[in-house]
User: Which sequence fits this backbone?
């Protein structure tokens, strides 16, 4: 069942033989020690495992590794460039848009994907797109504010 | 004192103003923490028999100044999102006179940090804060003495400023803390008590400060227990029963061996599969064939309340005064109601997790826990090691809310690590989390109360079953009253709950406040009075009147008789020494009876607020999380079988539920700081219930207030 999979992970080409039935989340966490992607529910209900595949937010706990062949994966570890936080990360810091921080990587990557599709979303559009990412601490109000701030900053020209 | 007894303390509200005549003081756990017990309380007797752990007297246990001038602050408290990593650093920095960004917090490491009872009960600021400040004040005074020796001058000539001791008259003539201590423990101590900074001189305490852990958390660098990697570690999955109380009658583990690399460990009831790939461990576990005998299921989420009242032990008087019958005689209206509250899960996004490493007779455990020192004792007893051979390290904790005061996973990981001879990680699946969670107990509150023709509450007869007494005492000005508590709010008596129960953010107080504030509203309605005016008329407590007026001002409350059709609600409460008052506006869809909470305003008096920004964050979090138990969260079960196993059926608040949230802090700089992590959640059931009544004239007596329940209530 082992098959070679080639993909780009946080900007670097990777090529490794993998059991095709494995889920991306566990490959990231176990094989690459990229532990920023979290297990929260294992069934795609909470969004803590969210990563970007070709710029699209996906639930890595439900994403078979065979489907990443030839694609680009970005995890939370790959968002900051040369030690500079991405504007969404900065906005989360500025707004205290997190508490325990466990859902935070998934929230940020989901927001990234949302802003890629819709660079200036309304508050309602943000709520709609973030709806399936769960936060138990109740940081929601600040997360919405952070995404709005990030959208403004990014449309100012710093978007990557 | 057993650690379990510390947990039970959470169900007593430890705040100022308890009637001392009826209670005994007991000094406990060092650092001036004072716990109040009733004399017959088993904890009190236990306290007399044992010497309880104390915080160390030596200030070096709390802080260390490094050679580079950075200051490490050591605390047995842990950071689970509540923000004490920031507020404790503020307290230390202010008192020690160092810049906030020079403080590094070392939290929840049992080898490095002073003993702690556990992080719960909104007690960190209130009870760890004072000894931390005292330690910092002594360190500062000692540093001044060391500087005086250094310059061969008198200590009175010096002042501490930003990590330096300088001459008062000539500030550029100074020596840094690092130069004085050279990274070493300070041997010198102060003869007397060091003076502490006065509130008017606080420069860091009381200022809004952003979280100190954000950058780590937004970059994915923050390590939680499940993110720790040790060479050769294995991931374990454990065979679990389908229901609490089920007995394993037959098991065949041999099919699991078909998964290459899987190791099966069986010792007594513990059957586990270990693998270096967590998915393979899961796959192997699924191959194990097990037969279970379940005991007969007698209770479920519908009949549990009758069961609880039936099995309740004799009640204890929490408070009383006057003669109830006298009050009843002068009542114009008497209202008797029963309020119900179901089981609620903690549902932290991080499940219970631990990594254990056992080498020889030493063990190291990385655990997602609110109680590292409790885990240390647990693991020592599981392994048969002396406690000093066990080190517990607490990385970032992904939410707790009381759920991680219980730590079954740590003993499991330790046992398996010892048996396997390799480090073992256990990370509960979401289903395991719902199964072994110590739920907020289902509870019943019965209230009989009256009101006279002038709108005064005449009597108040209150009995709470299995929620616990925290928040059960009313604070209204009622001449004849009695408050009784039947059955512990923690684990109940044997046979009361079919599974584990425990502390859930502001234990007991959510249930008690929902019942009390609903009943007060019902009395206001009977009196034909505006519920704000009615409360003010029946209150003498100045602090409560102040928060109530503050919330009304912010909300823009205008008087009306309920139900006014506007969908406005009020609720107030006291928790962890903090006063809160909430006002909410809801919309009820008259066809579906679905509730939308549009706006929540909360005023909070927590004395001095160490970090007003952090305090507001906690208030917002409480309000958002509280929407869940108010509207949707209710564990479904059949005997010991838990029917909810994931977020598809157990609904927690989402972005689309968000009301407009406004917070008001009554910042009393000269008052002692009180609790902040829990108070603002206690009113959420009551404020929404009262707003629903105001919207459609229907009172809902059971939490959560689902559309179905509102429909039923409206048809009655």
Assistant:
């Amino acid at each position: 069942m082992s098959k070679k999979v080639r993909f780009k992970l946080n900007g670097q080409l990777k090529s490794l033989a993998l059991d095709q039935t494995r889920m991306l989340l566990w490959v990231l966490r176990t094989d690459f020690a990229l532990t920023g992607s979290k297990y929260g529910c294992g069934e795609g209900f909470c969004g803590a495992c969210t990563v970007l595949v070709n710029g699209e937010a996906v639930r890595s706990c439900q994403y078979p590794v065979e489907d990443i062949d030839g694609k680009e994966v970005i995890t939370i570890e790959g968002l900051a460039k040369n030690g500079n936080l991405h504007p969404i990360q900065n906005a989360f810091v500025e707004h205290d848009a997190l508490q325990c921080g466990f859902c935070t990587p998934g929230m940020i990557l989901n927001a990234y994907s949302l802003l890629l599709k819709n660079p200036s979303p309304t508050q309602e559009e943000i709520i709609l797109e973030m709806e399936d990412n769960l936060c138990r601490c109740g940081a929601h109000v600040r997360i919405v504010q952070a995404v709005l701030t990030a959208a403004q900053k990014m449309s100012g020209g710093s978007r990557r | 004192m057993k650690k379990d007894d510390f947990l039970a303390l959470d169900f007593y509200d430890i705040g100022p103003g308890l009637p001392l005549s009826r209670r005994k003081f007991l000094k406990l756990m060092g650092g001036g923490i004072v716990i109040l017990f009733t004399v017959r309380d088993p904890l009190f007797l236990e306290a007399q028999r044992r010497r309880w752990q104390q915080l160390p007297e030596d200030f070096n246990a709390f802080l260390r100044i490094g050679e580079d001038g950075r200051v490490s602050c050591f605390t047995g408290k842990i950071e689970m999102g509540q923000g004490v990593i920031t507020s404790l650093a503020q307290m230390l920095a202010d008192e020690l006179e160092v810049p906030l960004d020079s403080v590094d917090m070392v939290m929840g490491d049992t080898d490095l940090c002073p003993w702690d009872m556990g992080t719960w009960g909104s007690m960190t600021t209130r009870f760890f804060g004072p000894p931390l400040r005292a330690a910092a004040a002594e360190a500062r005074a000692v540093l001044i003495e060391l500087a005086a020796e250094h310059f061969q001058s008198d200590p009175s000539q010096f002042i501490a400023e930003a990590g330096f001791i300088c001459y008062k008259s000539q500030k550029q003539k100074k020596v840094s803390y690092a130069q004085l201590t050279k990274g070493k423990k300070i041997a010198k101590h102060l003869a007397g008590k060091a003076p502490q900074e006065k509130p008017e001189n606080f420069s860091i305490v009381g200022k809004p400060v952003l979280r100190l852990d954000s950058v780590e958390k937004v970059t994915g660098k923050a390590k939680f227990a499940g993110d720790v990697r040790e060479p050769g570690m294995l991931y374990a999955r454990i065979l679990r029963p389908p229901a609490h109380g089920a007995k394993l009658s037959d098991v065949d583990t041999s099919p699991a061996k078909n998964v290459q690399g899987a190791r099966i460990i069986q010792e007594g009831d513990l059957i586990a599969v270990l693998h270096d790939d967590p998915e393979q461990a899961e796959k192997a576990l699924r191959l194990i064939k097990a037969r279970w005998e379940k005991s007969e299921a007698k209770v479920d989420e519908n009949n549990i309340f009758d069961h609880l009242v039936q099995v309740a032990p004799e009640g204890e008087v929490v408070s009383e005064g006057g003669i109830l019958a006298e009050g009843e005689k002068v009542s114009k209206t008497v209202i008797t109601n029963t309020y119900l509250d179901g089981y609620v899960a903690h549902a932290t996004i991080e499940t219970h997790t631990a990594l254990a490493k056992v080498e020889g007779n030493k063990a190291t455990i990385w655990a997602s826990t609110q109680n590292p020192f409790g885990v240390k004792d647990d693991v020592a007893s599981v392994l048969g090691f002396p406690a000093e051979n066990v080190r517990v390290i607490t990385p970032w904790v992904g939410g707790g809310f009381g759920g991680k005061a219980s730590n079954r996973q740590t003993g499991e990981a330790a046992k398996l690590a010892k048996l396997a001879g390799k480090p073992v990680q256990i990370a509960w699946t979401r289903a395991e989390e719902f199964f072994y969670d110590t739920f907020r107990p289902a509870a019943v509150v019965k209230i009989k109360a009256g009101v006279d023709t002038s709108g005064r509450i005449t009597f108040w007869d209150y009995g709470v079953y299995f929620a616990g007494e925290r928040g059960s005492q009313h604070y209204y000005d009622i001449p004849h009253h009695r408050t009784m508590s039947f059955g512990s709010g923690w684990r109940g008596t044997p046979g009361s709950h079919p599974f584990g129960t425990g502390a859930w953010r502001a234990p007991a107080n959510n249930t008690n406040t929902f019942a009390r504030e609903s009943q007060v509203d019902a009395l206001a309605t009977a009196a034909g009075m505006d519920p704000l005016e009615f409360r003010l008329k029946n209150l003498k407590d100045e602090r409560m009147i102040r928060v109530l007026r503050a919330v009304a001002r912010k909300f823009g409350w205008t008087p009306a008789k309920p139900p006014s059709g506007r969908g406005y609600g009020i609720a107030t409460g006291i928790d962890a020494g903090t006063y809160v008052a909430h006002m909410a506006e809801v919309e009820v869809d008259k066809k579906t009876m679905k509730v939308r909470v549009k706006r929540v305003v909360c005023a909070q008096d927590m004395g001095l607020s160490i970090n007003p920004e952090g305090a507001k964050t906690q208030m917002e979090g409480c309000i958002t999380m509280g929407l869940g138990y108010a509207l949707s969260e209710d564990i479904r079960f059949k005997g010991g079988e838990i029917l909810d196993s994931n977020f598809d059926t157990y609904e927690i608040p989402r972005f689309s539920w968000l009301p407009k949230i406004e917070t008001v802090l009554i910042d009393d700089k000269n008052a002692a700081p009180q609790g902040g992590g829990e108070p603002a959640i206690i009113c959420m059931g009551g404020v929404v219930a009262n707003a629903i009544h105001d919207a459609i004239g229907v009172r809902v007596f059971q939490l959560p207030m689902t559309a179905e329940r509102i429909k039923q209530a409206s048809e009655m």
Remarks:
- Chain A has two domains: 2-78, 87-158.
- Residues 10 and 78 of chain A are 5 Å apart (CA to CA).
- The domain at 87-158 of chain A is CATH 1.10.150.120 (DNA polymerase; domain 1).
